[in-house]
């Protein structure tokens, strides 16, 4: 989708439609829409991307969301700040509602793929399960919208078994 201000609204609408088709609604659907909104917002605010890709994957027990940006040309990083009260909460929200999330270089070419996973149901212990990543994609439904998608792979990506915090720790 074009990297314009309305991309967040468009991504949210398309995601809700796809989640509804998969029967993912209620708290999980709301959380997935929130996470996708935050990831698209970050791609818009922190890169000069002309296009942003979004992918949704649905398996029996979890959802995987991915947003791909085109990166920023050297010297053209576009960070928009309004006030401290309005900035810096996006990834905190993503961390709070996701079972895991991370980022890896989009290949080929510049850019970043930021992904998050959400459990389709709360754990039987009554809370969120410990962070985990997908180990495989068999039997998963997939939907992509917005262009280039995130079929890229890279070290530390979703199949690597490492969460964002583990990669940061080395």
How would you characterize this protein structure?
With 170 residues, the protein is of the alpha+beta class. The protein has helices spanning 7-22, 26-46, 90-97, 164-169; strands at 53-58, 62-68, 100-105, 112-119, 141-145. A five-stranded antiparallel sheet has the order 3-4-2-1-5. Helix 1 runs antiparallel to helix 2 and helix 2 runs antiparallel to helix 3 (90-97). The protein is globular and about 40 Å long. The termini are far apart.
Helix share, percent: 25-40%
Strand order of the largest sheet: 3-4-2-1-5
Poorly predicted regions are 123-140, 147-170
Number of strands: 5
The overall pLDDT average reads 73
Shape call: globular
Provide a count of the helices.
4
| β-sheet strand percentage | 15-25%
Content-based structural category: alpha+beta
Order of helices and strands: HHEEHEEEH
Termini, distance in Å? 34 Å
Largest sheet: 5 strands, antiparallel
Radius of gyration: 15 Å
Question: Secondary structure elements and their pairing?
Answer:
Blueprint: H1 7-22, H2 26-46, E1 53-58, E2 62-68, H3 90-97, E3 100-105, E4 112-119, E5 141-145, H4 164-169
Brief overview:
The protein is of the alpha+beta class and 170 residues long. It is built from four helices and five strands.
């Amino acid at each position: 989708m074009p990297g314009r201000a309305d991309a967040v609204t468009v991504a949210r609408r398309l995601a809700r439609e796809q989640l509804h088709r998969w029967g993912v609604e209620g708290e999980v659907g709301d959380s997935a829409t929130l996470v996708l909104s935050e990831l698209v917002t970050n791609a818009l605010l922190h890169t000069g991307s002309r296009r942003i890709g979004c992918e949704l994957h649905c398996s029996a027990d979890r959802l995987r969301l991915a947003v791909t940006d085109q990166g920023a040309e050297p010297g053209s990083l576009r960070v928009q700040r309004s006030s401290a009260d309005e900035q810096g909460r996006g990834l905190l929200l993503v961390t709070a509602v996701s079972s895991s999330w991370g980022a890896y270089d989009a290949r080929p070419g510049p850019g970043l793929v930021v992904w998050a996973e959400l459990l389709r149901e709360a754990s039987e212990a009554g809370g969120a399960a410990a962070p985990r990543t997908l180990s495989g994609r068999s039997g998963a439904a997939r939907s992509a919208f917005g262009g280039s998608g995130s079929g890229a792979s890279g070290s530390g990506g979703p199949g690597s078994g490492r969460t964002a915090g583990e990669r940061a720790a080395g």
